[in-house]
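User: Predict the complex.
Assistant: Input components as received:
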Amino acid sequence: MEWPVARLLPLLVIIPLAGAFLTPVAALLKAGRFCAVIALATTAVLLALSAATFAGPPVAVAWIGGWVGTSDPGSVTGIAMVCDGFTRLMLMIVSVVAFFATLFSMSYMRRYERVGLYYALILLMIAGMNGVILSGDLFNIYVFLEVAAVASYGLVGYGVESEELEASFKYLVLSAIASAFILLGIGVVYNLTGTLNLAQVAGAVRTLGENNALWVATGLFIAGFGLKAAMVPFHAWLPDAHPSAPAPVSAMLSGVLIKATGVYVLARLVFNVLGATGASGTLLITLGMASMLVGVLLAVEQWDLKRLLAYHSISQMGYVVLALGIGVEAHVKGAYAVAALAVFGGLFHMMNHALFKSLLFLCSGSVVYGTGTRDLHKLGGMGVKMPLTSMCTRIASLSISGVPPFNGFFSKLIITIAVVWAGHPILGLLTVLVSFVTLLSFTKVQRYVIHGSVPKRLSEVRESPVLMGISLAALAVMCLGAGLLLPVYKGTILDPARDALLNGLGYVTSVFGG
Amino acid sequence: MTAHGFLPYVLCVLLFAVGIYAIAVKKNLVKIIIGVVILETSVNAFLVLLGYRVPESGDAVAPIITPALNGQAFLQRSVDPVPQALILTAIVIGLSVVALMVVMAVRLYEKYGTFDLTKIRKLRG
Amino acid sequence: MRGMTLIVKTTAGFLIGFVVLFGFYVVLTGHISPGGGFAGGVVLAAGLVLVILAFGADTVKKRLGHNLAVVWESLGAIGFLAVATLGFAAGSFFSQFLPLNEGFKLFTGGAMPLSNIAIGIKVGAGLFGAFLMLAVFRASEARVRKGKGGQR
């Protein structure tokens, strides 16, 4: 394309925003199906644009309004949108999951009213997430974070069932506290460096070195974004909020929201902006380990399918944060090979988790659509009645448990090797243990959902509609392909992301060109 | 550092703590919402205070450019306008979040007939 | 929701014009003096809320209903996006494509007054819609139909 990639970047935010505001008007004109088509077209265009960002310079910077700045914090304060390797990985994850979730919801949401509102909120959430991923400015991250979060509040409380209202309220309050922490951290960083642009802050931090205010800011950011990413001890909202939402929304919340607004910003800030320090590494390792253990141990005893999946989200996000923490620690110690492997494992697992967790939630949505229940006690024998859903559930369960040749196996293996290589053999053992318990938990899921005899009241259950089946199958194929085709796409998608993160405070040179 | 030392900052942090206390301890939904509002207000106040600049001569003025206060004189005397722009946005965001919370609370009241969080949990069973 | 007494209705009818005018003033001079899109939008919403409060929702439901709020809100947002995208034509996204003349005059400031107007419309309609949902329409009107078994 002759347009430089930099001019493309604002489109990734404008297009879902425009879609989100056209949808209520279309709903008002009683064209309900048209809303779904608008949403699907928007996500398809976003998928194409995200793929198009790969053809361009390694770091594409778009300055809003043409106010170009330099690396000096005293220069003109422009707002930048930056697209480097890590951004491209996140854009691909968000676009793929959003596309298939929207495709799924075209059939699934037919059972609900006020569908125009639903599509508007989904598109707003996508716009917010794209904005967070693309933004090169600290306050822009906060604004788009809030846009995505407010849209998700609306989506979680979409119905008027009793459990959802409480879950939505708890999610709202906890998320508001997180946003307050984040804003406080932004204030501290602004006071310290005099600028809000991420690259300029990185440059200023590089000259400042260690500073007490930086500790405070790092702590506040880890608390705030850790809550958004559902790290233990801030995980209390996720097991209530994610099951209450409709299934495609749960897929998007668990699949991309906690990554784009939680782990992505955490990684970006800790590595590129605030500088990797020993304390932040240890903190991330502790949080990651705790999340892994608590998540999986609490998940084993669940009998509600979606609640079980939500607890597993906490656990798998713990894997990613653990890997990133090991990367930070190794980076500080100077063991660059270890850091590279750990960060690669973390990013790969993040991508895999987006794929198989959204597949799991969409499968659960398919089961709910067909049977009307998500209680594992009441399910059974879906292998006979819903073959496609059962196959996809099985594939996703094997992926998340880390069984070869699916993608989960490779990413968990890489993370475990990196943990052991970094000199934490006990943590490596715990990682394998958690993986084993995950396998246990999903064997239970498979036993109760797929195998067993069909209960009497579910004897007329049929397979889900075609559109839902297509999204399930496509995601399942990607789960298989992401593992086997790793050498093919690793160079274009994953390696630049890892290098962008490990560049550390050199972010300032990559954005401003030296 | 403001004209009164660190006291305004300490008061902001105190307000923050009050907000957290209200959210964590109170059982009434409306009081929790008020706690969130106090929390957000304290963070906004903290940000505005960060922008205070003490000029060499005269008093600090608000960052409004008028024909009388233009150019170099403005730069020397006004406070930092960036945090004020930040909190404008933050106030709007806080407003929409609190509006959503109030809607949720009204729905919960219609469902359960009470604003008390413990009673709602008991009713849910 | 019934209206209020005759005194309130007469006074409100007299004041609403001034309130809305003030709202427009704050929106339009956003680039010269403090105010701008959001603050002016809030004042506009306050004027509309005054209409509903004084005259009762039933009498005005047809003219100032929920549909109006939704349509104008979307129009305001799309207007804002259009202004931002038109900036593409003059270089980069959101640049000032109208001339920035010398300060303190009304027709200066590039694209800022246009975006202020769009934001003012959006915020006014949005806050008015929020008021309608909270105070006039009950949540029970927004029930979601259940599917088989009622879970999701």
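Strands of chain A lie at 60-63, 80-83.
Let me know if you want any component modeled separately.
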